[in-house]
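Regression check, glutathione case 101:
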Amino acid sequence: MTTLDDLILYELPGCPFCAKVDRFLKQNDLEVERRMITEGTNREDLIAIGGKKQCPCLIIDGKALYESDDIIDYLRTRIEGEAKEADFSDLKEACPVPWLQ
Ligand SMILES: N[C@@H](CCC(=O)N[C@@H](CS)C(=O)NCC(=O)O)C(=O)O
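Current build output:
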């Protein structure tokens, strides 16, 4: 397990885009601090940092990176060696929307 302790990931329960990022983290044995926007002041905190409550959002050096694909691309750059590509096919079945096509 590699802990990337400079990162914070804001998530929303049941969000398929968050599930994509979660899958990639697990596949690559990565750990980051995770905050559900449904808890405490996390939603307000995220809006204060990034300007919107959209999830997932990765905080890097105090800056917000939205978009699951961009977050995964960034995480790839933090992996030494080769990233294991996560399989999202079951998520696609669970949520057949264009983002996974
Ligand atoms: N294209 C974005 C879509 C993210 C998205 O739509 N997330 C939803 C939750 S499933 C959300 O946060 N909606 C609330 C909002 O946009 O304010 C991605 O791939 O991350």
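Comparison notes: The radius of gyration is 13 Å. The longest helix spans residues 16-27. No diff flagged against the previous build.
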